[in-house]
Write a structure and sequence with these properties.
725 residues, alpha/beta, Arc Repressor Mutant, subunit A, 7-stranded parallel β-sheet, 6-stranded parallel β-sheet, 35 helices, globular, disordered N terminus, nucleotide-binding, DNA helicase RecQ, DNA damage, RecQ-1-like_HTH, DNA-binding
Length: 725
């Protein structure tokens, strides 16, 4: 294979403007130019793309780059074209004429890098024309997509090796930013690259600050966070297109330059939004995970995960888009176990192996969020890298949790691994330790073991934490051959023989943290609002409620009145933005309250603090409109949920949002089939005499023997629709 004589460093300076290589780049490039198979594991922002771009320019022929995303291809081709390099892509966005032009230029040797999607490679016409071209090598970007054990598995990626063999005997460079030892093994095996030179860079991004917060007032927290980082570039990741649209709209109405990005947008809009972000016409992009792969924007200062990601690999890759210039990079994740439960439901229709793999990845994600151990230590351990200290630069290091003496518990956990013959994963070990019988415990007679039930004084969450920390501190290790299985290490065997005092960190209890936050907010609210105005608003509410023969909370609840007494809304729009109000309530009850506030503001010469209100968007989502229309047509609620691919609890939550924003809904046609009139009246009477519409109190008062939570939530909607809207 002929190589141009000029030195690689000259080429690096001439084309890309760099005078030095970073890390392993030079060794990787020399390896691929020597015609050897090459496997590169390098974190996001460390310069992976240069590892195939430079040899493509230094070698004769065209390099094929297999890439999973159109956005990624466009971004890299645009950049290379700007450097004066003839790079092109072949994908569905091109017209027939444009495709033919790219093929002609490739065959004539003008194109140095040709980006192709794996799906395009399977087409016979693509293979035929590639056989006519002089191909220098094949680069497989985002190679983790090959592995069914990874976070972004794509079946078409597993066909790549056979396709390359069809084109010719070509050297391969496979690159990924996220590969656990198990995934690495799977990639090499599938690509028949067992003999490949492996270049593995450290996964440690020292400039990134990792933080996890519980999901609580998340929208308010996000807006405050972005306003505190005014003018800085950031990405917010959401799991659904609907949530992307909602958050982008919310940011816009709060005067933040934000744009949405997801696969459902028209391709021109999507590209325009991406370009606006790259060109600094927008500060924030709100996106599904499709955004950012290969996007070379060095100055992204924060990455926020509004929803919990599906895996640590995905999380690491997405956070890696922050601070690629080595400067400030903040990674904030909002976590709720409800997100994990929802994601598990999404996997329920997948094949068994894929479903089990997905569940294990989600368990790892939940463990990362819950754990109070140094975040960096956890991330690096996950990717098979040892990090023997606390980083001092993550939330768990800056705000350390309490530690406890864990010697006895660690010995028990290690013995459970040994006594079950090192053939099981965390769930089974926890069942054995807590004395919980299941089909596996029974079939393997593990209820006969010495350790069975020895840890029943503690719950499953406690033992999960002990086993996780045993892994992190290398008393246990993962079995690479058997996904999810844990083995004891030499260090673990020594600990069983000679135990010694050891301290482990107590996990986060996010439910408790949310409760404390709510109490703190309540205290602040009680101290922060205008007490005189609050009393006047309460008196007005009491008088109006008495005139209407309604409980006062039906008009407005106390938190809404306190917010009115803090922000002094004087227009219908301002009042509609108060939490728990909405335009429906403004129209029904708002006029006297607005008159009272306006008079009070004028008499006391108050400057209203409109800037402390997080403005909410009027939700015009298609789902809401659809739900309202179907309820008007008296469509069965289960059918509405099924037609939109959501669960009944999710549908009821959607209906509650509609109701709380002031829209009247008539669910009698459905409720009458579930509850008789006497029981309906009992619930209506309860809400009429109750001091609030709190569901937990309703369940406690009315009991679960006679009513399900679903019954009571539907009746609350009926009650509020009738009296509050």
């Amino acid at each position: 294979m002929l190589v141009k004589q000029e030195s690689l460093k000259d080429k690096l300076k001439e084309v890309f403007g760099y005078s030095q290589f970073r890390g392993n780049q030079e060794a990787i490039i020399e390896n691929i130019m020597a015609g050897k198979n090459t496997f590169v594991i390098m974190p996001t922002g460390a310069g992976k793309s240069l590892c195939y771009q430079l040899p493509a320019l230094a070698m004769e022929g065209t390099a094929i780059v297999i890439s999973p995303l159109i956005a990624l291809m466009k971004n890299q081709v645009d950049q290379l074209n700007a450097f004066g390099v003839n790079a092109q892509f072949l994908n569905s966005t091109l017209s027939k004429a444009e495709m033919n032009k790219v093929k002609r230029e490739t065959v004539s040797g003008e194109v140095r890098l040709l980006y192709v999607a794996p799906e395009s490679l399977t087409k016979e016409e693509t293979l035929d024309f590639l056989k006519q071209a002089k191909i220098s090598f094949v680069a497989i970007d985002e190679a983790h997509c090959i592995s069914e054990w990874g976070h972004d598995f794509r079946p078409e990626y597993r066909k790549i090796r056979g396709i390359i063999d069809n084109i010719g005997d070509l050297p391969i460079i496979a690159l990924t930013a996220t590969a656990t030892p198990k995934v690495q093994l799977d990639i090499q095996k599938n690509l028949q690259m067992d003999d490949a030179s492996v270049f593995k860079s450290s996964f440690n991004r020292t400039n990134l600050y990792y933080e996890v917060r519980p999901k609580h007032n998340t929208k308010k927290q996000v807006i405050q966070y972005i306003k505190k980082n005014k003018g800085k570039s950031g990405i917010i990741y959401c799991l659904s297109r609907k949530k992307v649209e909602e958050i982008a709209e919310l940011l816009k109405v709060n005067d933040i330059k934000a744009l949405p990005y997801h696969a459902g947008l028209d391709s021109h809009v999507r590209m325009a939004n991406q370009d606006a972000f790259l060109n600094e016409d927008a500060d924030v992009i709100v996106a599904t995970i499709a955004f950012g792969m290969g996007i070379d924007k060095p100055d992204v200062r924060f990455v926020i995960h509004y929803d919990t990601p599906k895996s640590i690999e995905g999380y690491y890759q997405e956070t890696g888009r922050a601070g690629r210039d080595g400067l400030e990079g903040n990674c904030l994740m909002f976590y709720s176990y409800d997100d994990i439960v929802k994601l598990e439901k999404f996997s329920k229709d997948k094949p068994v192996t894929e479903r089990d793999n997905s569940k294990l990845l989600l368990q790892e994600m939940a463990s990362y969020a819950d754990s109070a151990v140094c975040r960096r230590r956890q991330l690096l351990h996950y990717f098979g890298e040892t990090y023997d200290k606390d980083c001092g630069f993550c939330d768990n290091c800056v705000h350390p949790k309490e530690k406890f003496e864990a010697q006895e518990e660690l010995v028990l956990a290690l013995k459970a691994v040994v006594q079950t013959n090192q053939r099981f994963g965390m769930d089974h070990l926890v069942h054995v330790l807590t004395g919980m019988k299941d089909q596996y415990v029974d079939s393997y007679s593990h209820d006969q073991l010495e350790v069975f039930g020895a840890g029943k004084e503690q719950d499953a969450a406690f033992w999960n934490s002990i086993i996780r920390q045993a892994l992190l501190f290398n008393f246990l290790e993962k079995d690479i051959e058997n996904f999810g299985t844990l083995k004891i290490s030499e260090k673990g065997e020594n600990f069983i023989q000679s135990p010694h005092p050891i301290k482990f960190a107590k996990d986060h209890n996010f439910d408790e943290e949310v409760q404390q936050e709510e109490e703190k907010e309540e205290t602040q609210a009680s101290a922060g609002h205008d007490a005189v105005l609050f009393d006047m608003l309460k008196a007005l509410r009491k008088k109006l409620a008495k005139d209407m023969n309604l409980p006062p909370y039906v008009l407005f609840q106390d938190p809404s009145l306190k917010e009115m007494a803090t922000t002094y809304p004087t227009t219908r729009e301002d009042l509609a933005h108060i939490a728990g109000v909405g335009m429906g309530k403004v129209q029904k009850f708002g006029k006297p309250f607005l008159e009272l506030i306006a008079k009070y503001v004028e008499e006391n010469d108050i400057v209203t603090a409109a800037d402390v209100v997080v403005k909410t968007t009027v939700n015009k989502s298609k789902l809401k409109i659809y739900v309202i229309q179907q309820i008007d047509k008296k469509m069965d609620l289960e059918e509405i949920a099924s037609s939109k691919g959501i669960t009944m609890p999710e549908l009821i939550e959607e209906i509650e949002h509609i109701c709380y924003s002031g829209t009247k809904l008539n669910l009698d046609y459905y409720i009458n089939n579930v509850l008789d009139q006497d029981r309906q009246q009992e619930v209506i009477d309860y809400f009429m005499s109750a001091t609030s519409d709190n569901m937990a109190l309703a369940i406690k008062e009315l009991g679960t023997d006679d009513y399900t939570e679903e019954d009571l939530r539907l009746m609350r909607i009926k009650f509020l629709s009738k009296y509050a809207n």
